[in-house]
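One chain is below:
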Amino acid sequence: MNFLSHYYFERNNLNSNMVIGTVLPDFVKNAQKELNLYPQKKPELFIADKNLNEILDGWKRHLAVDQIFHSSDFFINEMAKLKQLLLPILNDSPVRPSFLAHIGVELVLDHLLVINGKININAFYDHLNNVDDKVLKLFLTTSGAENTDPFFKFLTSFKSSRYLLSYQKLENISYALQRICMRLWTDPFDEETVSLLTEQLEVYKLILEKDYMTIFKEIETELNTNF
């Protein structure tokens, strides 16, 4: 799941440390894709510090949500639906349809949460701004990060741009997908393909919107039961 879908499960959580923890694994990968952190494997390093332990709780909820989501019939079925819609427009692209469908499902879920008023994006950014950078840096270094400068450069830009507000428009989802693909392929799409991608996402959005909340309810039930 993407940032806003993870935030959905913490939308009523007043603890900003825990909220940032639920998106921190993805933030780290966006900032430094080669950096692999596994703080959940050494909880004893964090338990004595209330702030660090709260971030760790959020981190572990992130992992739990992704595990439930990616193994769900919902995700498997929805990815297959979107892949079929994408295949005709990717003939001249190096992008793997399964990869694009995977990320596409996640971003369209974010889009639907936003346009249907299920989450408040500004409240999410308020939580990010509430977290003490010194606490966050200590969490990262305790987790094994030797250089946190790239992370904080990413985080500062992420917070100042309020980029997620652009998810209100589906064409911006297409450009987000293009940027993600550019990390793996030099020339993933031309402008015509981006336009066609938006058209296919519009078709898929109508399909997904009918019952997209079922996966959130399923995950929320499991979180409340086991976490």
The first helix runs from residue 3 to 8. The CA atoms of residues 83 and 99 lie 9 Å apart.
